[in-house]
Amino acid sequence: MALVITGCAQDDGGGTSAEEGGGEASSDFYDGETVTILVPAAPGGGADATAQFNSPYINEFVPGNPDVQVEHDESAGGIGGGNRYFNEMSPDGYTIFLSAFTTTMPWLVGESAVQYDVAELTPIAAFPYTGMFYVHPDTGIETVEDLPEHAGELVKGGVSPISTDLMFVLALEVLGVREDMQEIWGYGGTGDTVLAFQQGETNFDATTNVVWNQNQQMEEKGEAIPLVAFGFLQEDGTFERDPLLPDTPTVDEAHEMIYGEPPSGPAWEAFQDVMAVIHVAHSMTMHPDAPPDAVATLRSGLSDAIENSDYVEGWQELSPAEPIYEPEALDQAQQTVQDIPDESVEWIQNFVQENYPDEFTQ
Predict the structure, then answer these.
(1) Is residue 12 assigned to a domain?
(2) Can you give the pTM of this predicted structure?
(3) 178 with 111, same domain?
């Protein structure tokens, strides 16, 4: 299993070195300039929330106080945004790429449309996320134990099973209900699937904890019931419950509640490996050819921002897991993305090709 980093603690070594990566933080580099954060997903989802939240702090804390704008490119389920960043946009240091599930997962499984290498990106900061399921009360489902009985009546929307939804379809496979559900693909992001749920197009939704946190009033209004919250993977392979949903079972707990025994087998192992990557897949990154001074300046500014009390308080309203920004922790996070076992990658590729041949183009 890949090394797990949940981002709940940082090293004691202080902020990011100004000379990290050979560059030097400079107030001149971004003075009077505009920084663009390219988000490879539609507005309203977790990636967008990360970009929008960080934008004012980049303006305030990055030396030179650059203006910040957020741009979205959800083409080809997010792959188009990654391809454009790597191959068409100038690596001049003025565009941050918010590497997200929509770009990391297709790269991970070897999707042929991918023309970028996530492993080559230079991380500035990583933002741990996790996932969850919720259902409409009209389905008759009250707890996760009711899920198998009603699975054939459920309609779920998603981006793509090789994108954000990879962790969701694997979890549903582990719980033994995926094949019975109707799945609608092609939504622009998790924000769009929430809207589809609210408009009655679907009655079951899978989203990130951050997006749920922005829409949990649905539960308060009696419009949604949380069923499973994936939580955060621990070193022993178990999952710690998400503090945002402390009363909601994790996938392994849900499996035991339904079937009386913990999950096992290749789907469960693949889910664990994918979740190790998911926890660090949302990252602000720079092009591998970006000027070292740009990288050092952004790292310096973001490390100062993340240590600011207003930032900490605001981020905790989005996610309970602290951002990762120390150099060694970022290196570990980057290594986690690369270290998913070959056997898991092969199993996932076969799983997607067999069950979603129209989505996997290789």
Answers:
(1) no
(2) 0.85
(3) no
